[in-house]
Design goal:
Oligomer: single chain
Structural class: mainly alpha
Length: about 300
């Protein structure tokens, strides 16, 4: 079992710590399970569609073909055509770009800001902790959908606006997790010993706190991405997100809802990537949690 080391020789024997597996080892462990393998395939496929959309899309996603209006799936158009004759598959592939951009940039921004504030509140003076807690509590008390609609009405709908809304409302979640974990970790013996030996606050934060928070935060990010995708799709479905002619999963779903009786294939096709993204990232979070859990790691090695 690995030991947490400090700045003083010999103090590394004071407090044993669970080993933090490397990235390759974590990926192998995630891939070893059926749920993790399915999750990785879904996530990689969605990311590939987002990155290589111009090469993967079989048709122009905004090309209007009136003769193919509301046509069902065929050999040339695997998922059929919408009310304007546009290829649904191509629109969904291009829509993955918006979904992945909003998901990763939104959760990444919230993670960065929330973690910084959480570390400051958990490790800093009590007065700062109180002020930040009041701020986050006030922010969490605002109904998100009403705030989102108000912001979109005031400054207009765009991908940047959606990302700003998502970051604003996800920061308190990461703040609370990091703050609570920091308050627990800073009382651990190896951190107390490091501080007693003269380690600076920044050294403690970067050498001891952040490495012990990474696993938990990775799992949270994977779990939050489906919620972010649902928010973006929901706003686009309501007409307050991505605007035509840009393709979004929510706009395709809205188009299908308007013609659900004449062409149900549009709604079905639009729901497929949303379901796959939800299952893929949720299962990935579950698999990461198992791979990063020290107790699970010890059990897999047969240790007591």
């Amino acid at each position: 079992m690995a030991l947490i080391s400090t700045t003083a020789p010999g103090l590394e024997t004071l407090t044993p710590a669970a080993p933090r597996p490397g990235a390759l080892r974590v990926l192998r462990q995630v891939w070893s399970g059926g749920m993790g393998r399915f999750a990785l395939i879904c996530v990689v496929a969605l990311l590939a569609c987002a990155v290589f959309a111009p090469w993967l899309a079989p048709h122009d996603p905004i090309a209007i073909k009136a003769a193919l209006r509301l046509k069902g799936p065929s050999m040339a158009y695997w998922l059929g055509n919408d009310q304007l004759g546009r290829d649904i598959l191509s629109r969904l592939i291009y829509g993955s770009r918006i979904a992945m951009t909003v998901a990763f940039v939104g959760t990444g921004g919230a993670l960065l800001i929330g973690s910084m504030l959480g570390l400051l509140a958990g490790y800093g003076p009590r007065q700062i902790d109180t002020l930040l807690m009041l701020f986050c509590d006030a922010l969490m008390s605002i109904p998100m959908i009403l705030f989102a609609l108000a912001v979109v009405t005031l400054i207009g709908s765009s991908v940047a606006t959606i990302i700003m809304i998502i970051v604003t409302f996800m920061v308190p979640g990461y703040f609370r997790v990091v703050r609570s974990q920091t308050r627990v970790l800073k009382r651990m013996e190896y951190i107390v010993a490091a501080r007693a030996m003269g380690a600076s606050p920044l050294s403690v934060v970067f050498r001891h706190l952040i490495p012990n928070l990474v696993g938990t935060l990775l799992v949270l990010v994977a779990m939050d991405i489906p919620a972010v995708i649902a928010i973006e799709s929901g706003l686009s479905f309501l007409g307050q997100g991505v605007q035509p002619p840009d393709a979004s999963w929510g706009t395709v779903l809205n188009d299908g809802y308007s013609y659900i009786r004449q062409a149900p294939h549009i709604v079905i096709a639009a729901g497929i990537p949303i379901i796959l993204a939800t299952l893929g990232f949720t299962f990935l979070g579950e698999a990461l949690r198992d791979a990063l859990d020290p107790r699970t790691a010890r059990q897999s090695r047969g240790e007591s």
